[in-house]
Design goal:
Strand order of the largest sheet: 1-3-2
Number of helices: 7
Structural class: mainly alpha
Helix content: 55-70%
Radius of gyration: 19 Å
Shape: globular
Distance between the termini: 13 Å
Strand content: 5-15%
Order of helices and strands: HHEHHEEHHH
CATH architecture: Orthogonal Bundle
CATH superfamily: Winged helix-like DNA-binding domain superfamily/Winged helix DNA-binding domain
């Protein structure tokens, strides 16, 4: 069952509107924190577990030099630490410091509280359904992007799903 072109176009429009709204919410939530929106995004990904900078850049969709600047800023603030990889001297896994863990916790609590206020007229069911739909959309997009990056045509992915 394929999505109609008009539906896909409407979905693209809604996603861009959502991105703009999320950016506005994120910008408002930066107040009182040393980290800006971009650094908060990097902090969140680092908070998911120690990782090499190249892998982080890939996941964030930014170039290595851009990520390096972000990491340098977070390192200056004492939120992340780079260490030498004992197996590969060139690699430097990045992880959160205890103050980075605390900063991330505060940011996420503040964002959740703000969103909770913004959605005061939503039911728990509406919020849960939306979260599940956004998760499904995100996973579908990630799979498609990974398949394209790996050279697998998206039609082959569709066949795998339905075949």
């Amino acid at each position: 069952m394929a999505v109609a072109p008009d539906t896909a176009a409407d979905l693209v429009h809604q996603i861009f509107d959502l991105q703009r709204a999320v950016r506005c919410v994120a910008t408002a939530s930066v107040r009182g924190h040393e980290t800006g929106v971009a650094l908060q995004g990097v902090l969140r990904f680092v908070g998911e577990g120690e990782s090499r900078a190249t892998r982080l850049a890939e996941r964030l969709g930014v170039s290595a030099p851009v990520l390096s600047r972000h990491l340098a800023g977070l390192q200056e603030q004492g939120f992340v630490v780079r260490r030498k990889d004992p197996d590969d001297g060139r690699a430097q896994p990045v992880g959160l410091t205890p103050s980075g863990v605390e900063e991330l916790r505060q940011i996420e609590e503040q964002r959740a509280a703000a969103l909770q206020d913004y959605l005061c007229d939503w039911s728990e069911e509406d919020a849960g359904n939306t979260a599940r739909t956004l998760y499904k959309l995100t996973e579908s997009l990630k799979k498609s992007v990974r398949a394209t990056a790996a050279g697998t045509p998206t039609t082959a992915l569709k066949e795998q799903k339905h075949g």
